[in-house]
């Protein structure tokens, strides 16, 4: 047995019963919290699966996704951008907070701002604080983004590497999106890629059919 293992055993054997009991209580408390978090995540994932599998309109699906994500992370503002392949632009498709009034009106190119950077590089980006000071940040005056210090953007990417959109979360005070939360949001992004792409395609097709001239019988 190694000297390190011997030292660890000696430390445990020399520990008083009171300290051992307290250590066990702390460990149990940590495990209980972890189980609670897992249970909450499973409930939210089931909610997301139910939402994307429903017959709801795309706008309602996106709104419910953001509500679930907001509850999971306690962020102050969330937005989902969908990628318009024909125009090569990210379009704000759903939002909470100040951005809600600008759904469909805000567009950005790949690489523009934190959201555009995540889309261009196909990987998440997390800034705990001072997001506005980051050279990649693109300020939109109407959004009042000067109030938000933390930002987390996750690209929605298909298995083939193609881009569907980006989920962006923001918080007023320096906000620690935990590693577990970031992993959870990344899993949601991977989960919704296919259904969102299908719904976006159907909406585009329906809009095209409505706007195209109809022949008379």
Automatic annotation (TrEMBL):
SUPFAM superfamilies, per database record: GAF domain-like
Top-rank lineage group of the source organism: Bacteria
Biased composition (Polar residues): 1-14
Domain GAF intervals: 57-206
UniProt-annotated stretches for the region Disordered: 1-24
Pfam hit, one: GAF_2
Protein name as it appears in the record: GAF domain-containing protein
């Amino acid at each position: 047995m190694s000297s390190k293992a011997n030292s660890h055993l000696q430390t445990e054997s020399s520990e008083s019963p009171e300290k051992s009991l307290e250590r066990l209580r702390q460990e149990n408390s940590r495990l209980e919290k972890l189980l609670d978090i897992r249970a909450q995540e499973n409930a939210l994932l089931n909610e997301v699966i139910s939402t994307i599998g429903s017959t709801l309109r795309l706008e309602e699906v996106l709104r419910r996704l953001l509500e679930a994500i907001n509850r999971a992370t306690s962020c102050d503002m969330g937005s989902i951008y969908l990628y318009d392949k024909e125009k090569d632009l990210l379009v704000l498709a759903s939002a909470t907070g100040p951005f809600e009034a600008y759904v469909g009106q805000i567009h950005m190119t790949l690489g523009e701002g934190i959201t555009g950077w995540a889309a261009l590089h196909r990987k998440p980006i997390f800034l705990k604080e001072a997001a506005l000071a980051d050279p990649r940040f693109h300020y939109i005056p109407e959004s009042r983004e000067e109030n938000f210090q933390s930002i987390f953007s996750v690209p929605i990417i298909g298995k083939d590497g193609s881009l569907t959109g980006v989920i962006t979360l923001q918080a007023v005070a320096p906000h620690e999106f935990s590693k577990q939360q970031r992993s959870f949001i990344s899993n949601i992004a991977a989960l919704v890629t296919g259904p969102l792409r299908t719904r976006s395609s159907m909406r585009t097709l329906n809009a095209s059919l409505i706007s195209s001239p109809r022949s008379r019988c």
